[in-house]
Specification:
209 residues; transmembrane; cell membrane; LysE family translocator
Length: 209
């Protein structure tokens, strides 16, 4: 397929990696449990789009800049940190406002989509992962190298989106069953916000290797 090497191994590795819980899956689970399955599903799509952005960057060599430049890595990392902390604070504030009004405010799905995209794009570790993982199954000397990288990125993104969508549906189901209780909803959203903020702190502690 376009000269892709060890395609079967790539599919197996992709499925195993996407089934392994990580920051993206935790983020989607927290959004779905706090704001319902639709928000989780849209977040899954946003994360998938972010993966496609990283695949494009890896295909055209932009991810190599993050590997070579400490400044670029640091700028992207701290943008991600600040964005995750801001998202967590907003989720906590929204939970307490909704608890006071006794009415659940539906998540604005276009906004949730872009938040998912940015959460993924602003994680430089994801960029470095794509730069390290995808070329193992492509042929750098092939004229179709860029297309190979893009195809591999699309497949990886689709696989991850399907897995994350299943997680979102499951977490959204259980979250909605408990979310009718105002007190539970308040603490549910607070816990989700704290988890997202913790992801930001974890990103702040990562180092370029």
């Amino acid at each position: 397929m376009l000269g892709i090497e060890h395609f079967g191994l790539f599919l197996a590795a992709t499925l195993a990696l996407n089934l392994t819980p990580g920051p993206d899956m935790l983020y989607i689970a927290s959004r779905a449990s706090a704001q319902g399955a639709p928000a989780g599903l849209v977040s899954s799509l946003g994360i998938g789009v972010g993966c496609l952005v990283h695949a494009l960057a890896a295909a055209f060599g932009l991810s190599a800049l993050l590997m070579m430049s400490a400044l670029a890595f640091t700028l992207v990392k701290w943008a991600g940190v600040l964005y995750l902390v801001w998202l967590g604070v907003q989720l906590i504030r929204a939970g307490w406002r909704e608890a006071k009004s006794q009415a659940l405010v539906p998540a604005r799905l276009p906004q949730v989509l872009w938040q998912g995209v940015l959460v993924n794009v602003f994680n430089p570790k994801v960029a470095l992962f794509f730069l390290a993982f995808l070329p193992q199954f492509a042929s750098p000397e092939s004229p179709s190298f860029v297309w190979q990288m893009l195809l591999l990125g699309v497949i990886f993104s689709l696989s991850g989106t399907l897995v994350n969508a299943a997680v979102a549906a499951l977490c959204g189901h259980f979250g909605s069953r408990l979310g009718d209780r105002p007190a539970w909803r308040r603490w549910q959203q607070s816990a989700a916000g704290v988890l997202i903020m913790a992801m930001g702190i974890g990103l702040a502690l990562t180092e370029r290797r």
